[in-house]
Amino acid sequence: MRPGAAGEDVPGVRPTFGARLADAMDRYGPLCVGIDPHPGLLRAWGLTDDAAGLRAFALTVAESLVGRVAALKPQSAFFERHGSAGVAVLEEVLALVRAADGGTQVVLDAKRGDIGSTMDGYADAYLRDGAPLACDALTVSPYLGFGSLEPALSAARATGRGVFVLALTSNPEGAGVQHARTADGSCVAGLVARAAAGLNRTELEDREGVDGAPRLLGSVGLVVGATTGDAAARLGIDLAAVRGPLLAPGVGAQGAGARELEHVFGAARGDVLASTSRAVLQAGPSAAGLQEAAARAAHEAAAALR
Fold this sequence. Notes:
Elements: H1 17-28, E1 31-35, H2 39-44, H3 51-65, E2 71-74, H4 76-80, H5 83-99, E3 105-112, H6 116-127, E4 137-140, H7 150-159, E5 162-168, H8 175-178, H9 188-204, E6 220-224, H10 231-235, E7 246-249, H11 258-265, E8 272-276, H12 278-281, H13 287-304
Helix pairs in contact: 3-5, 3-13, 6-7
């Protein structure tokens, strides 16, 4: 068995992202809370729409929920809109979660995707040990070709990090690309899912048949909208075969409940990391309010995904 295989805690070697996330989901429930400081939420919290308001909002959410939820997901765009001061706040939030000893994983929602040296640069910025913007996992876009993600995939493998690859998103425009079929009848999103499954199979193969092995998740996850209905089934995409975490935006305030989650994910429900933002963030700015809302959302997600 190679050092650092999923679920294996080797001294001096970081367990894989998939193993860490599975542990966090088992401990706290299958919930990821977005840190989305858009102007409306800043106003609702009585904060100014500037870097100072951004910092108060983002650090309050992170400090209140780290060690209480499986994952936190800062949306990079809401930090970038404040320029260098906003990016400095994002660095501070990422550092806070990285330094905490509660197992909460931090997923940076940046949806990066490019080719060649530019993708090398993104990988270096977000997936390198010691990088100011280093996260546990990064959202990436495969729609310049799955192979264009190789710099990010290689960096993630080398440092025990992960990626969430956009597959089936809930925006209406996405279907024109993601549902399109190739000459052999395969849909584009299905090709993305199969590529992720192959990478996870390689990562997890050393753990097969190990007595007492924990629940296994690979480190290459997919983003699959919780409101995409029967798209996966209709397109012939086997989400359970991916064997990686399925980040599911759209749970809670956006309308996806138990029935919708069963419809979308079927046998893969146990791999779903439900993502919610407004349902929790609107309970701020009090830490107690955020914590109560997150605990309720985690309970509801767990019940919906049984």
